[in-house]
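Let's practice the habit of predicting before peeking. Look at the sequence and jot down your guess about where helices and strands might fall. Then scroll down.
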Amino acid sequence: EPDAALGNGGLGRLASCFLDSLATLNYPAWGYGLRYKYGLFKQKITRDGQEEVAENWLEMGNPWEITRNDVSYPVKFYGKVVTGSDGRRHWTGGEDIKAVAYDVPIPGYKTKTAINLRLWSTKAPSEDFDLHAFNAGEHTKACEGQANAEKICYVLYPGDESVEGKILRLKQQYTLCSASLQDIIARFERRSGGHANWKDFPQKVAVQMNDTHPTLCIPELMRILIDLKGMSWKEAWDITQRHWLWLICWFTFVRTMAYTNHTVLPEALEKWSLELMQKLLPRHVEIIEMVDEQLICSIISERGTSDPDLLEKKLNAMRILENFDLPSSVADIFVKPKADAAVDLSEELEVPDEAAAADAEDELEENDTQKKEEVDQEPVPKPPKMVRMANLCVAGGHAVNGVAEIHSEIVKDEVFNDFYKLWPEKFQNKTNGVTPRRWIRFCNPHLSNIITKWIGTENWVQDTEKLAELHNEDLQAEWKAAKRSNKIKLVSFLKEKTGYSVCPDAMFDIQVKRIHEYKRQLLNILGVVYRYKKMKEISAVERKAKFVPRVCVFGGKAFATYVQAKRIVKFITDVGAKINHDSDIGDLLKVVFVPDYNVSVAELLIPASELSQHISSAGMEASGTSNMKFAMNGCILIGTLDGANVEIREEVGEDNFFLFGAKAPEIAGLRRERAKGKFVPDARFEEVKEFVRSGVFGPYNYDALMGSLEGNEGYGRADYFLVGKDFPSYIECQEKVDDAYRDQKNTVETTNELKD
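Done guessing? Here is the structure:
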């Protein structure tokens, strides 16, 4: 069956690996998600670069899922909040839909445990079908409610540049949170025998929020507990006053929720317009405002009021609500005393002379003119009121973790430094991982059989520390044979998918991941262009002596509206079209872009890889997981000290990792130097850009792409991701890769350093 179109890149795949490990370790855990009908998109590569078409993974049905029409929950949007006769707030009116469960069992490895992945599909209640309109011939109007409900689960990450797109994204996030929490609470109550003790809830339930997309779990749990389960803020506050617990609702979600930050990129630290959220989720805005006020009180209590200016600065940075006035309960702290405007009339007044009077009159006229000009100017618009979802996650979770050692330090030192100083005990590291069941045992059976033979047991699949026992020269020969077998498989696949023929005796150099400027596929392909240019400048005999044959494979999707990323895809395919048809070069260099990269493609590429590129700008890749998959399959990495690269390098040894580039602590200073015009680009970098601009790779105008690497400031300029800075050390490191590949015996020895 086709790959399930449920997740975009590493984060979705990481969730799958978590489920596999949880089941194998016999944990009672569930996964929740949306059942996207069309997924992200299916990628096609044409002469114009990347084109997107809808996924069709559900066209023939999904044989693994179980439709649970008996498990559905109401989800509300819009409406208004009113105070009932009981004094409670009630969310009424608006648009109601149903979330219906589809269950996918996740079996553990060599265990009787199978856990559940519950996916939600959305539809409108039957009563929303307008039968009168349908019979009157107004068929579209009659089905409007159903169409609005169903489209929530059509596409993963729908474009959000329009207001409609933003509303749809927020609907998706709330549907996931509301349906999942209602389900969790229903099971908790059922297992409690109808007598739920809510103080036990955080001991029985843990909800992990992956990035900020599920942040609405926090106000949604609050809403359910207060509005539907009858808890009050007053009751909870009485408990807090006795210094036993925080207010019960606050305590409940704080102890229940935890937040994983997966990236330092601004787009992942979501902010939502208050106006939009108030319109779509009015009750949740009320709760968020209360949580924000609670957070403000906590900050003031911890920091004190001795320095009001500093305190106000901290509050502005840490509040959940951005560009909001302070609540009246604390506003008085920041009222500045007015200057004493009283004049002592008993003092003698000097009578000005005529010249001084004239000067004063001129000054008054000048002031009047200035005031008139100020009135005529356009008023400065107020910044929009926003809800900071990441701040809500940190405030509302009992733990906050990064996903690699270096990333977790950046989270503490930069991204959430103020929160770290307030609650240092909340912050921790949990380096990502991948499942060896899929990423060695299943996808690389030839290598798996060799490992089992030499270790003498298959237990390594569950205990990967046993891989450290693999040291034997006979093993190396068998390992080489397995690698070549995998390369031959990949040669056939590349021919089928792209039409390009490549030689299995060349080095297979692979970079597959989401296309993004910070992941620096552009650095890789510019390195390839430099290599090609140098090849063309020397004779055929010199070429063969100097360069190791190499097949450079790229794969990954650029987001549909990410123009620069799509330019990079176009550039890679243009470079490939030129080099792959150059008879002077032949099998010495090939460039292949694999369309529609997914898990099934990865299962062919990774076992055949010999060099894998993980070359993000230092400090910008939270972890990466493909680096782990490549390393597990006996592949050497070239990369920066970023994400999990740091820990992989520590495990395999510095001699078995090709390191280059600036380090994370240097990045901010390098950008400041660039802004001051102090950066001097390497002559080789200038040379390769001019070569691209010469038109050798076709008629497409690459000025915008090359221009992003130039200048010292401005949007889309100034080489923010330091491609030019790292280019010299990158190409010099690639020369070391060639030298190592020539020494096959040493290369085989280094690839035996397999770690999970």
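How did you do? The chain has a mean pLDDT of 89.
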